[in-house]
Amino acid sequence: MPSTPRIVVALALALLTAPAVRADDPLLERDVLPVLTKQCLGCHGGLRQKGGLDLRTVPAMLKGGESGPAVKARDAAASEMWKRIESDEMPPNDKKLTAAEKAAIKGWIAAGMPTVAQRQKDADPLLATGKKHDPKEVAATIDTHLDKVLNVAKLKPAGRSEDAEFLRRVYLDLTGRVPTAEQAAGFLDSKDADKRAKLIDALLATPQYGEQFGRTWRDWICPPELPSDANGGKQPHTEAQNLGKWLGTRFAAGDPWDAIARDVLTAEGDIKSKPQVIFFALSGEGGKATPAGSARATASLFMGVQFQCAECHDDPYRAWSQKEHWALAAFFAKTTGDFGKVSESRGGGRPEITIPKSAFKNAGNNVPAAFLGEKSPAVKGDALRPAFAEWLTAKDNPYFARAFANRLWFYFFSRGIVNPVDDFRELNPPSHPGLMKLLANEFADSGFDVKHLVRCICNSEAYQRTSRVAAGADEQAVAAMTANFGRMPLRVMTADVLLDSLKLAYGDPKLDLRAIDPKDGNANGESAPVAEPYLEFLRRFGTNEDDATDFTHGIPQMLAMINHPRLLAGSNLLDAKLKAKPAPGADEVVEFLYLSTLSRRPTAAEKAAADRYLKKAPDPTKGYNGVLWMLVNRTEYLLVR
Amino acid sequence: MSQPLLRRRDLLKLSAAGLLSGASVPWFESLAAAAPALKKPRGKSCILLWMDGGPSQQHTFDPKPNGEFKAAKTAVPGIHIVEQLPQLGQCMDDMVLLRSMKTEINDHYDAKYYLHTGYKRASAFEHPAVGCIASSQLGLPNDDLPAFVTIDAGSDKVNGGRFYRSVPAYLGPQHAPLAVHDPYKGLENLKESGGDLADRLELLGSGEAQFAKEYPLPAVGAKQAAFDRAVRLMRSKRAKAFDLEQESEKTREEYGAHKFGQSCLLARRLVEAGVSFVEVFHRGWDDHEGAAKRIAARAPWMDAGMSALIRDLKQRGMLDDTLVVWMGEFGRSPGDGGGHFCNAWSTAWAGGGLKTGQVIGKTSETGKNAGGTVTERPISAPDYIATLCLALGIDIHQEFTAAGNRPMPLADKTAKPITEILK
User: Fold this and answer.
1) Between chain A and chain B, how many beta carbons pairs sit less than 8 Å apart?
2) Which residues of A fall within a CB distance of 8 Å from B407?
3) Phi/psi zone of residue A90: left (φ > 0), alpha (ψ -120 to 50 degrees), beta?
4) Is the sign of the CA dihedral B276, B281, B286, B292 positive or negative?
5) By the 8 A CB rule, do A505 and A632 touch?
């Protein structure tokens, strides 16, 4: 798991706060919580509360434990927690706090225990709620939010991307593949001042937009290795892919997110007519839907809340209780399902669930269904999932809009406004609270219009900034800029995007980069170590889902790119181009190859280098094939810049 | 192993820095120069021989008095294994038999997962496989050879449930195994194709140097370093580790004219070249129609391949530093071995600097259900994984951080390692 550059995050956080907190004041989230998480919460958190003490929140610290309150604001000497830490009485094991960690805690108490969270609530979204705004107005407001933070931090945002950079980025992000040479040339040569906004609109109208967002959500829903039936049963790859396609169709049609979410969460019936029913078995166990799995996946994907710890015990690091988790799971208690179907048992029984034996705390207790954060279980009758979906997708639901908006932001910038994207909570506040509110409001006010939100973000200067790094910028400065959305990060193409881009560059819709096609394996291929081409490509070229800037390909992937015969065998498009009358000159062909891979024209130096290479080649076609090989092996090709 | 290894990303940053500072040198050469001849960190190597589907213990290493296969003496007085494995019998001085595996799970896939990770499979959470753990703990981050290689030794029938693929989970994709799909063909895509690679690399190099100058970022350094490692591997003498043709006819014959034996030989070559963990898997041991006939047919090549491996490692002075483990995801039911059986089964270990020439644990000897219960020293899956890691010199008490700040101990805290075999 790549670690977040905490210092940078904290910097951003510190800059946001109201005047009462100076930038150099210690802050709970930045300075203290990491220490507590590492050293203290294991025993004084959700899992265990030794001495009756819970250190997860400031109110809990003030409440204290058997020895009284743990902290006293502005008085470290009178704070029980500080006394025990200072004397090395705590932690009781041999991993004591370092001098710096101690200083952080003492300073924080002395400063009156300031937190970012307490100041987040009043953040101003800067646009009125209750109506849908023009995307360009929202885009400008996005930039206002970001610029404010950048200004305070004295960071000068990167300039606007060149057309070629924007073109390739927006094609990859919105349609999941590079543009064709013709599309690229058309955009680059256009003199239309509004061509970027128009391109965004045009791409949102393509079926590829749906396909790309559908498979992105498919990957967010599906675990990296799919579950299977108990005894080596079949793996639902096809069904998972169909889920992605179903989502894609809905996205492409412009269906609002609340409708899509409702259709997933309330689905009943057979997979043949409802591909989304597999959501439940995918998030369950052993190929079967489970209430806990459904709750966990629903919380993570639709609410931005992590419940994996609270399944078995109160969360040691987050203020979620085990009861809250099971109260949510109770909505799925009557749901049964597998890879083929989902059904709901009707009639009788209270809407509640018994905590199963697998949880190591409170097994056997009954928990009534309740909406998260609301005290009374307000559910009657049979329609548990519909009641939940109705609550979740209501316009004023506190979780639904922001969870999607944050994920969408993460998709474009490789970093959420809240990180991890499904970990919204008091002690993990957004880096840009006003912006978070703006996006969530706009999304809800637009009727959860996904394309609208995409338009708002993609039309912002933030999205259209260059990813180039200013000459001489040091690593810290670059990281600070990226974390504050002052420049676009370089991201690694996902397997799907790389495969589709290669297919396009080689004019080969069946492009297969496997070295062998094993004939063994049972009918479903489960016992075969090499899968069918698409799945195998996804496995081999899978990327870090949590951090798109992390280049994780190694020797096997590079060897495939370098030596796989298919990548040297030339392109069907190139062949067609070469057959054209009048025959194209070398310059034209090289330009065509650059446009269909890097979505730009070659520089003079690049032209000259290609020329030199082509002169050495035994025949022109082989030479051009070598140039194409070189282009797909470029770092620039594998990255989204 | 108390010294923390450099994290991969840090190393990549270093290489990226090295790359960027050598402005006048072609980009791939400067990296090669920046990679010092690092020594292998302390710790051993492992060759895991995985008999996918669940091999019968009473037809291999734990014969029973009235069993279908007769017991035969071995080089160690008092230890008997089936007479079908005479060469392994002669290696018993260098082996330890663990006869009291008791591992709770009788379903193929979940058992494969459990015995590869030491953890039971849970939904929505992946645990790293032992080979990936070894890669993260023993491998060199910037080596031109990957630290974990799997070799497919084929199958004699297609059953035994879904194939388990080693997944690095939270350790990061860089610890995923490199797969050899056919030991005779070696590593796929390793051979230069197209003929004019040097010219193409030159063409690529100038653009790459320019891009690295414009984007001095970790992802760029990481890509160029990985690419460079691949090119270095293709051109390195160590690439020959993947080529069985480098071995003499005589050696190849000793390992047996079967994919399994040749996979064992390839595994030895790879360990010799510095790979930390090799998993050889042979599929088709799910003998529901009875194990006797099937194992009688497999015994000759298994006996030849595995014993040749042990002898060869020993002769080369590598056996003390190389642990060989033979096993499947569970054993077979007493009697004809027709059913899955996780209650009392065997794994066979060799070398690794262990206290060899002994048997750990016992199963019931007589009665209608001979071998049906463990009577001494039950070994759980966590016990087994913890012992394996300890034997390789891996600190089993360390914790990793999985998604959601979840601390994950390398070995389950219930694990009781089999210290009686460790020196």
Assistant:
1) 239
2) 42
3) beta
4) negative
5) yes
Sign (positive/negative) of CA torsion A386, A392, A393, A394? positive
Coil, helix or strand for A513? coil
Check whether residue A364 and residue A505 sit in a common domain: no
Contact B213, B241 (CB under 8 A): no
Q: Which A-chain residues 568-587 have CB contacts (< 8 A) with chain B?
A: 568
What's A32's DSSP letter?
A: I
Domain ranges across chain B: 40-138+146-165+256-363+385-421
Q: For chain A, what percent of residues have pLDDT higher than 90?
A: 60
Q: Where are the alpha helices (DSSP H) in B242-317?
A: 249-254, 259-273, 291-315
> Whose CA is closest to B354, among B327, B387, B320, B377?
B320
Confidence tier at A8 by pLDDT (50, 70, 90): very low
B40-138+146-165+256-363+385-421 to CATH, choices 3.40.720.10, 3.40.50.720, 1.10.10.10, 3.20.20.70: 3.40.720.10
- Contact at CB, B172 and A553, closer than 8 angstroms: no
Q: Return the DSSP state at B379.
A: B
- Among B245, B364, B357, B350, smallest CA distance to B308 is for B350
Q: Which of A229, A325, A558 to mutate to test the interface with B (most CBs of B within 10 A)?
A: A558
Q: Which of A115, A141, A172 is the last residue of a domain?
A: A115
In A334-486, beta strands by DSSP E: 335-337, 341-344, 352-354, 366-368
Interface of A with B in 491-510 (CB under 8 A): 491-492
- Write down the pLDDT at residue B38: 34
Distance from CA of B172 to the nearest CA of A (A): 7
Distance from the B338 Cα atom to the nearest Cα atom in chain A, whole angstroms: 16
pTM for this predicted structure: 0.81
Rounded Cα distance between A497 and A639, Å, is 10
Tally of domains within chain A: 3
Q: Do A641 and B123 lie within an 8 Å CB cutoff?
A: no
Instruction: Check CB contact under 8 Å for A306 and B188.
Output: no
Token digits of residue B300: 């000759």
Confidence of residue A348 (pLDDT cuts 50, 70, 90): low
Whether chain B has a CB inside 8 Å of the CB on A523: the answer is no
Contact indicator for A604, A611 with CB cutoff of 8 Å: no
Q: Are A34 and A428 in contact (CB under 8 A)?
A: no
Distance, CA of B275 to CA of A505 (rounded, Å): 36
- In one-letter notation, the amino acid at residue A514 is R
B98 forms beta bridges with B347, B360
Q: Are residues A382 and A525 in the same domain?
A: no
Q: What is the ipTM of this complex?
A: 0.84
Strands B399-402 and B406-409: antiparallel
Shortest distance between the Cα of B227 and any Cα of chain A, in A, equals 6
Of the two residues A287 and B70, the one the predictor is more confident about is B70
Q: Note whether residue A518 is domain-resident.
A: yes
Q: Measured between CB atoms, does B184 come within 8 Å of chain A?
A: no
A551 near B CB under 8 A: yes
